[in-house]
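Entry 14. Ran structure prediction on the chain below.
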Amino acid sequence: MTLHLDRTTSDPPLSATEITVHGDTAAADVLGALLHQSGATVSRFPDAAGEPAHVDAGASLTVGWGSVPDVRDEVSAQAVCGLMHVHGRSQGSPRGLGLDYCSTAAGVVGGTGLLAALFGGASSVTTSVAEAALLTVSQYLAAAGAPEAEATALEPGGPPFLSADGVLFEIEALDPSVWQGFWAGLGVPGKVIGAGWRPFQFRYPTATAPLPRELQEAMGARPFGELEELAGATGMSICRLHAPNVTGGPAFELTTLDFVGSRVRETGVLPLSGVVVLEAGRRVQAPLAAHLLHLLGATVIRVEPPGGDPLRGMPPMCGDTSARWLALNRGKSAVEIDIKNPADRDRLRDLVRTADVFLHNWAPGTAERLGLGAQDLAGVNPALVFVHTSGWANRLADAPMGTDFMAQARTGLGALLRPSDEPPAPSLVTLLDVLGGLLGAYTTVAALLQRERTGRAIRAESSLLAAAELLQLNANGRPAPGFRRPLLGDGGWTHEGVPVTDDLASIPADPRFAGVVGLDSDRCPEVLTPWRFR
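Output, structure tokens:
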């Protein structure tokens, strides 16, 4: 699959830049694709002196395996850094991902660091696959190691569902009334419907969903067409598990707007020092993108609803704040704004006047309907970078709801993540929300570079769809039977002689992770910055 240049960008940020990418790993392939789309002329060489990737540009980038012992390739990164454990929760034992997820994430993280170095004037940047892998499980790591974490083991279980005519499919509901109406239409008792709501909603933070068996049975009694009809009537989003079907497209889009402006910022040690980001994000994708921008030195101000982000109170807690929330939002400040209120929208516009970036993951059309779209806000601040981290980037006419598990189902990831002796199933790890967040950070820094080149406001967009396409960049069909399946022995779970980390709470005290994972002031596990600049 080849990712082509974004056709909406006439002068991409790395135009007339020659870049050499060394390496034959997924990290190198992703870097080559992203830098090519960013306008560079990219030359590829397979040699990387044992490292996953090395890039020679105006600044140099090295992506290593990392300083964590035993991490020497993709599968050991998944094993040692906890991804096998989290991915396997829904099945009751560790499982490896069939695609090179950690290396793909490292390619995006490395590319973001390289663009940041070019933006901030650094001469070199280093990162690693191990650090990217730990970033991908940072929420689960924070929750497992929180002082108030529950010691109760998580039960396995979860989608996909199977219809009477043999169709595997996913469903999505963000509103309990939608959930109630759909299952009531199938004749499921109210008590069972209520018992299923919490594990279904909590599959995002826990990576497992032990649903009542009555729900699977109710689905299995109806043909898929009938279930689709009921979903349409009740507002439930439903999507069959597709075969791998992505054809390639822009990993991000940059559009130069007809507003000319400039920003003077203070420089500092980190490359994005002095950059001000307004983030109106919820759940994972946009908050993670802004978190990475903060780690690069930006000042991030969250735009939260009246009363604050309700996810601040999601257990387990570190002090008076959710551990999972801290993993994505540590170090940000916040302002409460009701975007449905005209006076509060004016307050938001006032904040935009002094910002460099406005970043959001609202549903498509929301910003424009409220008069807060890219054209609207660039009229307030003609030097603004407006970034939308979306689900589908308006590229699929029949797209389901733009959430992680629906995107996995629609893009065929379920058939590629598990070996061929298991039924296809999306992972209950938030793979695309996280990779989409990493891609959102890359897109934002690319847009900042574009603004520097053109002196104009920029509209930028990344998506879960693009994240799925990056992950499938080198997919070669379903993995072989038993692929990356750890074995249980007297000493615990291992894969090819490498111990599998199946207790995330042990990581902060494990000397192998010193310097990459620490504890914050609330004793909450924290994945430290993955970049080192010179």
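Confidence is low (pLDDT under 50) at residues 1-8. Will compare against last week's run tomorrow.
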